[in-house]
Amino acid sequence: MTIHIYGIPNCDTVKKARKWLDANAIEYTFHDYKKEGVERGQLVRWADRVGWEVLLNRRGTTFRKLDDADKADIDRTKAIALMEEHTSMIKRPVAEHEDGARILVGFAESEWENAWC
After folding, report:
1. Fewer Cβ in 10 A, N or C end of the chain?
2. Cα torsion for 18, 24, 29, 31, to the nearest 10°?
3. What would the pLDDT profile of 73-111 be if each residue is shown by its tens digit?
């Protein structure tokens, strides 16, 4: 079993998730949003699976610095466009089983234990 982790390496939550995977001897690959970007199709698929509301990081600095007009009336289409343009608006990490059957957003040890162990 291989898990694909999407995020940025200096994010504390991503660091915790990767440390947990290492401690539990779970194989994973890491995809750095900042260096490799994220394709629109990937964002659409994740939004279909977990909901754009879960995927969009409204707490981050990038989102908070948006103009009020950009923050207003956010729907699925607008959220995906924002995340595509500003990858730091994607909640981190996104963890996806290699077969795409399971996707988790964020890191909660109990959820990860249930999903990956």
Report:
1. C
2. -20
3. 899 999 999 999 999 999 999 999 988 889 999 999 999
11 is catalytic: yes
pLDDT tens for 14-28 read 999 999 999 999 999
**Six token digits for residue 29:** 């690959």
Specify whether the CB–CB gap between 56 and 79 falls below 8 A. yes
Active-site position among 4, 11, 20, 74: 11
Tell me the residue length of the chain.
Answer: 117
Distance CA 63, CA 83 (A): 10
Which pLDDT value is given to residue 100? 80
Secondary structure in 3-state letters for 66-97: CCHHHHCCCCHHHHHHHHHHCHHHECCCEEEE
pLDDT of residue 81: 95
CATH assignment of the domain containing 49: 3.40.30.10
**Non-local CB neighbours of 10 within 8 Å, separated by 6+ positions:** none
Question: 83 lies in which domain range?
Answer: 2-116
Token pair listed for 80? 């995906």
